[in-house]
Specification:
about 65% strand; single chain; about 80 residues
């Protein structure tokens, strides 16, 4: 298993998710194929470039996202 993990890291197959939390962030972020996790309130966020998935929690968030075909979406919270 360690060899497979090392190989995946070496060829760039393992990617770190984009994680945004807190209150009121406003930005545009290139996904570059990564997962997106947003938690908090009143964010205004744009994600471009074939995001792998979206997990969104909180309230009052506005998210525009470019998802790759077959991507998963998990949303919880209010409005």
């Amino acid at each position: 298993m360690i060899a497979a993990t090392s190989l995946a890291l070496a060829v760039g197959l393992v990617t770190t998710p984009i994680e945004i939390s807190g209150v009121g962030h406003q930005r545009s972020i290139p996904c570059e194929g990564r997962d997106v996790v947003v938690d908090g309130v009143d964010h205004v966020l744009t994600f471009t470039g074939n995001c792998a998935s979206l997990t969104l929690a909180g309230s009052g968030n506005k998210v525009v996202i470019d998802l790759k075909p077959g991507a998963s979406i998990d949303v919880s919270g209010t409005n």
